[in-house]
Here is the input.
Amino acid sequence: MSASEPPKEPVKYVEKQVHLPYCYVAGDYKARYLAALKDKTILGSKCSRTGKVFVPPIVASPESFAPCDELVPVADRGIVTTFCIVNIPVIGRAIELPYVAASVALDGADISIYALVQECAPEAVRMGMRVEAVWKPDGERQGSHEDIVHFRPTGEPDAPLASFMHRL
Here is the structure.
């Protein structure tokens, strides 16, 4: 086969190491959000026009374009709004399969965050399920997203769909 001829069999994957160095600057809101995680506090920013709370905090509302200049704490528990049972390993993640990746609407927030749901069978996870954060132990939290290890069911009754439909 010459270099100008296409391969006889389709290419299924290419394995190559890629080095992508970058420096992430959190900015004031994200830096304060991350620092608060070290103290087991989740911060959101409140829209000055609508009162909606966004987690993680943002500078301006994507809906109203108004400033979100007030940082407010939200609960470390909430509702599973949507979820996916993952059966395919992700390179660089050492999580036993299957696991659940979910959108969790924290109490006090108007949008969901992405989170891992564990400490229950994946088949038991459902929309409306109440969950709570499982934090790294005191002294081990670094002020990063990894300070919340995962979320687990609280055992409380499920929330009705109408109560979180606008928070998907």
In short: Residues 13 and 101 are 25 Å apart (CA to CA). The chain has a mean pLDDT of 93. Residues 27-167 form one domain.
